Amino acid sequence: MVRAKSEERRGEIVRAALEVIAERGYRGASLGSVAERVGLTQQGLLHYFPTKEALLVAVLEERDRWDTGGGSRASAETWRLDLLAALVEYNAMRPGIVQTFSALLGESVTEGHPARAFFTERYAQVRGEMAALLRAEFGELLPSGLTPEQAAPLLTAVMDGLQYQWLLAPESVDMPAAFRSFLTLLRGPGA
């Protein structure tokens, strides 16, 4: 019972941190502001997350769990191109989460950022998953002649790049439709 309460409290803190980071960015978010949002002192928050960096990683891991239906990162066998399209549609319904992820991704490219290792590892894993997905869908060569390993970083870049464009101009960029158009390019003529 105590463990369940502790996990529930950790979940509240992570959700509050996500909101604060979405509003202020990682560098502008403080442990005090997160603690205040969940009715704790900063010292009380440190009982659950000993550092701001630990809380940030928990926020990023939680975001990935939401994308994969509650589990850990999806395996290559579970992803298909149509499921990626569904994920893009789902993301279009939750701009706050996408904005937080995008802001943290942008900040993480700076040397010494606490999320840099998380994103570096995440992208290596995602590229591998996308290559496996493309291999399952097309075999060793896509209709364009690219290998799955050549196309995987492009697929990943399109997904994240569309998020940035959509966040900046949601009335001009239909993220799900643009992604479906990209899938048409991947599948080639007559698909």
List keywords for this structure.
transcription, mainly alpha, transcription regulation, transcription cis-regulatory region binding, Arc Repressor Mutant, subunit A
Cα Rg: 18 Å
Query: Roughly what is the average pLDDT, rounded to an integer?
Result: 87
Terminus-to-terminus distance: 53 Å
Contiguous low-pLDDT stretches (5 residues minimum) are 70-76
Number of helices: 9
InterPro entries: BetI_C (IPR039538), Homeodomain-like_sf (IPR009057), HTH-type_TetR-like_transc_reg (IPR050109), HTH_TetR (IPR001647), Tet_transcr_reg_TetR-rel_C_sf (IPR036271)
GO molecular function, one term: DNA-binding transcription factor activity
Domain HTH tetR-type: 7-67
Pfam family, one: TetR_C_6
